[in-house]
């Protein structure tokens, strides 16, 4: 299997059609889905029929440079979740979303920060990315902490989408963080 990226402790690789069960299991954990669906699982048919084909099409769309990637521990090979660095569909290629979804067993171990730092370095250093953004719910403090550790700046508050109104903390809306290539380079100096 092709390696997309390595960090100190994790390896990222492209998903395949055979990986649907990994995503189904990840998205069936109520704690993992807390700030996404209020804890409701993603239906397995949605993962198989929509999510996986969309992920695979993204690799083709962005020449395998960007997308959503499966993350595994180097020591033992356990699947820990996924990370993404990808533009919006139809959006400018040089503006990419940073995202992550990790199994509970991987929480609190610094993986989100570690791999996100490596993704920023790859995006800004090799892939022509000029700005990276990330969004989460205002009340999702662990995810916001990662964004802040990366040097991302809070740029705006976001309204809660209609399909997330039942999610805990929805009354507080969401937040968008950004970091530009220039800001990232200053942090590296």
From TrEMBL:
Keywords: Transferase. Coiled coil: none annotated. Residues 10-182 form the N-acetyltransferase domain. The keyword Nucleotide-binding does not apply. SUPFAM superfamilies: Acyl-CoA N-acyltransferases (Nat). InterPro entries: Acyl_CoA_acyltransferase, GNAT_dom, N-acetyltransferase. The keyword Amino-acid biosynthesis does not apply. One of its GO terms (molecular function) is acyltransferase activity, transferring groups other than amino-acyl groups. Pfam families: Acetyltransf_3. This is N-acetyltransferase. It comes from Streptomyces tateyamensis. The lineage of its organism: Bacteria, Bacillati, Actinomycetota, Actinomycetes, Kitasatosporales.
């Amino acid at each position: 299997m092709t390696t997309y990226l390595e960090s100190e402790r994790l390896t990222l690789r492209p998903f395949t059609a055979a990986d649907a069960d990994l995503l189904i299991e990840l998205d069936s954990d109520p704690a993992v889905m807390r700030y996404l669906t209020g804890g409701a699982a993603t239906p397995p048919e949605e993962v198989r029929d929509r999510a996986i084909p969309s992920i695979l099409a993204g690799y083709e769309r962005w020449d395998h440079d960007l997308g959503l990637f499966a993350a595994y521990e180097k020591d033992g090979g356990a699947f820990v979740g996924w990370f993404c660095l990808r533009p919006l569909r139809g959006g400018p290629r040089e503006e990419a979303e940073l995202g992550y979804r990790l199994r509970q067993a991987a929480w609190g171990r610094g993986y989100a920060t570690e791999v996100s730092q490596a993704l920023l370095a790859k995006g800004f250093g090799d892939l022509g990315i000029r700005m990276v953004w990330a969004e989460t719910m205002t009340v999702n403090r662990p995810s916001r902490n990662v964004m802040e550790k990366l040097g991302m700046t809070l740029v705006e508050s976001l309204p809660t989408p209609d399909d997330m109104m039942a999610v805990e903390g929805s009354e507080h809306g969401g937040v968008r963080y950004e970091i530009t290539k220039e800001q990232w380079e200053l942090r590296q100096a």
